[in-house]
Amino acid sequence: MDDPGPTLALFPLHTVLVPGAALGLRVFEPRYLDLLRDCGRSGATFGVCLILEGAEAGAPAMPAAYGTEALIEDFDRDPDGLLALRVRGARRFHVRRTRVRDNGLVVAGIDWLDDDPEEPLQPQHALLGELLQRILEQVGTDVAAIPKPRFDDAAWVGWRLAELLPLSDAQRQGVLQETDPHLRLQQLLEFVSEE
């Protein structure tokens, strides 16, 4: 019998989570409260995928075939009494198949994508490292606290730009699915040039 491989419960959203990015969630549906309870007990994680068809609440939505593992960083109750989470994107994955549990939770058989290699920015993308520094300064990040080599790391620059630039969900999903950090930067450069 074929090895089914790893499985991951999915939290489909109308947004794309990229590696290293933070995302705030408000959780109220029983299927997701159950999922988070399971994560708390077992230390498991869950996956965030862009919704291709459907809604965030109600009937199970159809998720994109690529997503990002979400690590829970913090949780609390918001003023409305709902569970408020802060998660951070970790590893990327490709969905091979999905099934829907009785409670409506979508569980996927996945393949983890390889981690990005550490490679320097190519000359044609050097401007993107400078653009990222300016954006981070504008949003109030202490750029001096970020190690200088980060701004020359093609993968890190690409993911931070994918997180911070005003991209459409479709554009951000395309960046997430690209496995080559230099081709990812090329996509981002084309998006920036169009504006």
TrEMBL record:
Which Pfam families did the record assign?
LON_substr_bdg (PF02190)
Give the highest taxon in the source lineage: Bacteria
Name all Lon N-terminal domain ranges: 5-195
Q: Which Gene3D superfamilies match?
A: BPP1347 like domain, LON domain-like
PROSITE patterns from the UniProt entry: LON_N
Note the SUPFAM superfamilies from the entry: PUA domain-like (SSF88697)
Protein known as: LON peptidase substrate-binding domain-containing protein
